[in-house]
Every structure is written in C-alpha cells, then in structure tokens.
Amino acid sequence: MDLYISAVIILVLVAISNLAAKFIKVIPRTYINLFMGIIFACIPLISKLVIGFDSEFFMSFVIAPLLFFDGQQTRSFLVQRKFKEILGTAIILALISATVGLFAVNKIFKVGLPLALIMIAISTPTDATALDSVREGRDVPKRTEVVLKMESLFNDASGIILLQAAVLWFKTGELSYTRNFGDFLISAVGGVILGAGVAFITMVIRQMIIRSRFNETSSHLLIYFATPILIYLVA
To answer: What does the alpha-carbon distance between residue 11 and residue 21 come to, in Å, rounded to a whole number?
Structure first.
C-alpha cells in the first residue's frame, strides 16, 4: 500500500513540475523537477508518505530502461564511425578529468584523496538524460552534441569502476590499480558481450511471437519493455 501511495505522490509531483516547466522555459525541466522535489521533501506530511530510496530498484527500473531506450535511438553505424572519439571521451577524458579534479578538490577543499575521488567519480561521467536536460532550449554545435551524446551512453563503466575504486580506497586505505582495471574490463567488455547476447535472444523470441498464430500485442509490448530490466538483472 505504501508503494502505491508513494507512486501516486511522485506522479502528481512530476505532473505539477512539468506543468510549471511549460511556463518557466528559461530553466531546464530537470532542474524544475529537482526543485519541486526538494520543496515536497521539506513538507513533513508528504515526505512521510514517500518510501525510502532503493538504489537497486532505481537502477533496475529507472536507469536501465532510460539507457536502453536512449541507446535504441542511436544508429549503430554512427557508433562505429565515432568509436575512437567515444573511447577518448568516455574513458581517457574521464580518467584525466578525474585525476585533475581529484588533486584540485584535495588541495582547495582539504579533503582526503579517497573521499575526493568518491566526489569526482559521482560528478565526472555525464548521463544521457542529464545531457538532454542541460542542452534543452539551447543551440549546441551538431558535432559537439553527437560527441557528448555518444560519450554519455558509454561512460557508465568508467564512472562505476571509479566509484568502486574510491569506496574501496576509502575503506581499506589502498588503491589497487590492477584490480580496478580488471573490473573495468569485466564491466565494459563483458557488459557489451552479455548485453548483445541477451538482447539478441530477446529479439528472436519477439520475432517468433510476432510471426506465430499466438501473436498477442500485449505480450509483445511486455517483452519489449521488460528487455532492459532483464538485461540489467542478468548482468
């Protein structure tokens, strides 16, 4: 029951913030959503009715579908053509930015290196949805937009591994380069292989259902929307 009440409150909040965004076009919609969320969270009666944040639920049912459907809108030939730029921005640039930011935060704010790396790992990788919200209503050069869009779809492995490395460094006091690089290869390369395999199997099943006499639109749609969640959980 608490889940239903929480879902209704959040949906009402989103509807109100989206309506407000129609009148306040100077500020991106995402920032308005965040601001409205903060206001609602400050109201004790409403905040008590909303269930606590569950990171696994959020990753499985929000982030995974968002990344999946953003990726679907990206043409494969464009990824092949921009592959070197993707590697440069999603991995090399992310690592350089993290290194520079790490020592900058450490020196300027007198924060320990492990904690500084945690802060940097959270803020360095750009998210596809966050990118769209920031550039909403703004003229961005086409080439820059394409590069950032590609980078935002492929930088999750580097961001997650950076965060894992930072947390382990914070807990143990040691930074293992070998282990972190191995984890990165497993997340990046393994994720591509496993994701492609599960997606291909799911696509074959959907095609079989469509071509059979047992084709049912509702079943087809359920499989389609469950695909990103299934891929994430299997991974």
So the answer is: 15
- Residues 200-221 have a mean pLDDT of 79
Return all residues near 59 (Cβ < 8 A) that are at least 6 apart: 232
Tell me the average pLDDT across 76-84.
79
Which DSSP symbol is given to 182? H
Helices 113-123/156-172 angle, 10° precision: 160
pLDDT of 25 > 80? The answer is no
Residues listed for the chain: 235
Distance CA 231, CA 67 (A): 12
**Cα distances (angstroms) measured from residue 95 to each of 131, 146, 229:** 19, 20, 29
175's tokens: 């930074």
| pLDDT score at 126 | 62
Cβ-based neighbours of 36, under 8 Å, separated by 6 or more: 13, 16, 17, 20
For 103-123, how does the pLDDT look when each residue is reduced to its tens digit (9 = 90+)?
999 999 998 999 999 988 887
Q: What is the dihedral of CA 231, 81, 93, 192, to 10 degrees?
A: 20
Query: Sign of dihedral through CA atoms 161, 162, 163, 168?
Result: positive
**Residue 164 burial class via C-beta count within 10 angstroms: exposed 0-12, middle 13-18, buried 19 and up:** middle
Q: Report which DSSP code applies to 52.
A: P
Nearest residue to 122 (alpha-carbon basis) of 74, 156, 148, 173? 156
Is 60 a residue whose pLDDT tops 80?
A: yes
